C-alpha cells in the first residue's frame, strides 16, 4: 500500500491552483481596457451592437409589461 503525504499534496495543489487564479486575474483585461484597445472601426461596430441590444431589450420589456 502506498502512503501519500496528504499535507504536502494539499499544499502544492493549493499553490498550483492559487497561481493559476492569480495569473488569470492579473492578465485578463477589464471590459473597459479591452474596448479602449479596439480600432475605431471595431468601436463603432460594438457601439452599434450595444444600441441594437438596448432597443431589443426595451422592446421585450415593453411586451412583457403589456
Automatic annotation (TrEMBL):
Essential for the assembly of ubiquinol-cytochrome c reductase. It has a direct effect on the correct occurrence of the Rieske protein, core 4, core 5 and apocytochrome b. The lineage of its organism: Eukaryota, Fungi, Dikarya, Basidiomycota, Wallemiomycotina. It holds the Pfam family CBP4. It is found in: Mitochondrion inner membrane. It comes from the Eukaryota. This is Assembly factor CBP4. The chain crosses the membrane at residues 6-27. Keywords: Chaperone, Membrane, Mitochondrion, Mitochondrion inner membrane, Transmembrane, Transmembrane helix. The keyword Iron-sulfur does not apply.
Amino acid at each position: 500500500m502506498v502512503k501519500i503525504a496528504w499535507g504536502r499534496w494539499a499544499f502544492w495543489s493549493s499553490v498550483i491552483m492559487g497561481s493559476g487564479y492569480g495569473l488569470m486575474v492579473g492578465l485578463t483585461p477589464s471590459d473597459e481596457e479591452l474596448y479602449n484597445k479596439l480600432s475605431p472601426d471595431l468601436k463603432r461596430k460594438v457601439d452599434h451592437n450595444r444600441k441594437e441590444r438596448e432597443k431589443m431589450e426595451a422592446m421585450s420589456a415593453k411586451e412583457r409589461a403589456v
